[in-house]
């Protein structure tokens, strides 16, 4: 009995993943590519942490409230975004609604596996004290919670762990975390979900950091990062390619052999932000090195980086930065942004060796720590008690929240749409009332189309089966 349910369940899982809106992405050379069409994918996104860093607790994280996710997904569709990054997640909360919503909206997710709670991150000063099974309950717990979802673009093993305060050997611990996560994923997920690292823009050690994670290690191929994010705020106001230092970054990463992107950008020293860097970031020159980026950040918090203001009652005001970002995105030539390029996808990494590290103070050996035995057990057997993500039914709808623009005028066209299968959201997917651009030809989104039904049907069947088991 159990065996036959098991097989049925596997069949249903396979069905569920084909019914989802977005096609999983893969890493090929220095590009992200769509696994179905082989088109290049460039990240057009925002960092998503409603409530700011302090908005996170064991009761509430950015992907635990379906109503808020629905509202925000609709406003992101209107903007043309295809990716969010989420920093702090509690693996014990239920994220199924939010993950299914963003998926149906054609929006990918890059998820940090660390959290600010105790045992939630590596200690950069003494990493050996936190490299243990308690920490890995968090790391593998996040993987379990999200591995089902097609729209997981990747996981960040760490964010700015290696900085001025880090101890000399910290890089090898972070690379060991990449290895352990990739091994866990290869044993317990249906696809090789990419794993990467997000770096601070500390220019003296930036290239050493990238090279440390990027190089190939013959005796531990799984420890190589699949992508590299860079938090960069060097373009402020009406800057340009040279003044912002984007030219140097482009040159520095021109030989990269993995996807590079801005995991945070959007300097706010000059307000309002105009986001003129968007044309540079997605232009011909820069896209040889970069795969797009994520604006910091979605909601307005104390540090004043938001593009929308969310009120306690769920209503929203779109800020002038939202409009400015939107009009820059609408100028992009999406055909060019998503064009594949064989030169980019065929690059091969260098072998790890001390001579690829320039700064004498940067760790230049790859003697990675072995996983503690309890962690090896987790990798081999899987986390038994961790909740694992499941698809839920999502329906297209007009969102109930009141939305006003920067001048206080009501925006009435905010609608959550379900995109057709294998489609991701893009600036040209929808034309808002204020924009006169015609409906895109590359993205024939079918609002209320079959994916909704398919998802619902499969989700329902899945839940029925789950309750039988
Ligand atoms: C990139 O590779 C080319 C060809 O090997 C080399 O001339 C150039 O110096 C490299 N650039 C960087 C920034 O390493
Ligand atoms: C393909 O990529 C290479 C290297 O990134 C670049 O030099 C070349 O111009 C690109 N080709 C096209 C057609 O964009
Ligand atoms: C793997 O190779 C690196 C670099 O050559 C070396 O430092 C490390 O000790 C090796 N690890 C093992 C387990 O052999």
TrEMBL record:
Q: What class of enzyme is it?
A: transferase
Residues of the signal peptide: 1-21
Q: Where is the composition biased (Low complexity)?
A: 423-442
Alphabetized GO MF terms: 1,3-beta-glucanosyltransferase activity
List, alphabetically, the GO terms of the cellular component aspect: plasma membrane; side of membrane
Its GO biological process annotations read:
fungal-type cell wall (1->3)-beta-D-glucan biosynthetic process; fungal-type cell wall organization
User: EC number(s) for this protein?
Assistant: 2.4.1.-
Q: Does the keyword Heme apply?
A: no
> Glycoprotein: is it a keyword of this entry?
yes
A Pfam family reported for this protein in Swiss-Prot or TrEMBL: Glyco_hydro_72
Mainly resides where? membrane
Q: Where in the cell is it found?
A: Cell membrane
Give the protein family. Belongs to the glycosyl hydrolase 72 family.
Q: What's the stated role of this polypeptide?
A: Splits internally a 1,3-beta-glucan molecule and transfers the newly generated reducing end (the donor) to the non-reducing end of another 1,3-beta-glucan molecule (the acceptor) forming a 1,3-beta linkage, resulting in the elongation of 1,3-beta-glucan chains in the cell wall. Involved in cell wall morphogenesis.
Q: What is this protein called?
A: 1,3-beta-glucanosyltransferase
User: What species is this protein from?
Assistant: Penicillium alfredii
């Amino acid at each position: 009995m159990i065996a036959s349910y098991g097989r049925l369940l596997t069949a249903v899982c396979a069905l569920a993943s084909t019914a989802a809106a977005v096609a999983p992405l893969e890493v090929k050379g220095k590009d992200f590519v769509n696994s179905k069409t082989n088109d290049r994918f460039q990240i057009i996104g925002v960092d998503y942490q409603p409530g700011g860093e302090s908005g996170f607790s064991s009761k509430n994280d950015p992907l635990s409230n379906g109503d808020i996710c629905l509202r925000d997904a609709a406003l992101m569709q209107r903007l043309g975004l295809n990716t969010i990054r989420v920093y702090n997640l509690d693996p014990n909360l239920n994220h199924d609604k939010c993950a299914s919503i963003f998926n149906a909206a054609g929006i990918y997710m890059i998820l940090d596996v660390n959290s600010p709670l105790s045992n939630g991150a590596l200690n950069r000063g003494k990493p050996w004290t936190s490299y243990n099974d308690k920490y890995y309950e968090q790391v593998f717990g996040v993987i379990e919670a999200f591995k089902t979802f097609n729209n997981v673009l990747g996981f960040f093993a760490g964010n700015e762990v290696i900085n001025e305060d880090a101890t000399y050997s910290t890089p090898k611990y972070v690379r060991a975390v990449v290895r352990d996560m990739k091994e866990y994923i290869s044993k317990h997920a249906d696809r090789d979900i990419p794993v990467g690292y997000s770096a601070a823009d500390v220019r003296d050690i930036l290239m050493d950091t990238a090279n440390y994670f990027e190089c190939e290690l013959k005796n531990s191929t799984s420890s190589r990062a699949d992508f590299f994010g860079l938090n960069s705020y060097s373009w402020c106001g009406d800057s340009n390619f040279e003044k912002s230092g984007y030219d140097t970054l482009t040159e520095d990463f021109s030989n990269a052999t993995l996807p590079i992107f801005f995991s945070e950008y959007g300097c706010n020293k000059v307000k309002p932000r105009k986001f003129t860097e968007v044309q540079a970031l997605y232009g011909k020159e820069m896209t040889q090195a970069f795969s797009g980026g994520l604006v910091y950040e979605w909601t307005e918090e104390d540090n004043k980086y938001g593009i929308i203001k969310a009120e306690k009652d769920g209503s929203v005001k779109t800020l002038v930065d939202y409009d400015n970002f939107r009009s820059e995105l609408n100028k992009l030539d999406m055909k060019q942004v998503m064009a594949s390029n064989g030169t980019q996808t065929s690059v091969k990494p260098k072998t790890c060796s001390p001579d690829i590290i320039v700064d004498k103070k940067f760790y230049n050996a790859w003697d990675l720590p072995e996983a503690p035995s309890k962690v090896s057990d987790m990798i081999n057997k899987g986390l038994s008690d961790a909740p694992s993500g499941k698809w839920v039914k999502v329906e297209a709808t007009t969102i109930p929240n009141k939305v006003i623009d920067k001048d206080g005028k009501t925006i009435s066209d905010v609608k959550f749409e379900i995109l057709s299968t294998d489609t991701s959201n893009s600036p040209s997917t929808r034309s808002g009332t204020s924009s006169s651009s015609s409906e895109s030809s590359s993205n024939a989104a079918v609002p209320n189309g079959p994916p909704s039904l398919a998802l619902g049907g499969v989700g329902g069947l899945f839940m029925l089966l789950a309750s039988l088991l």
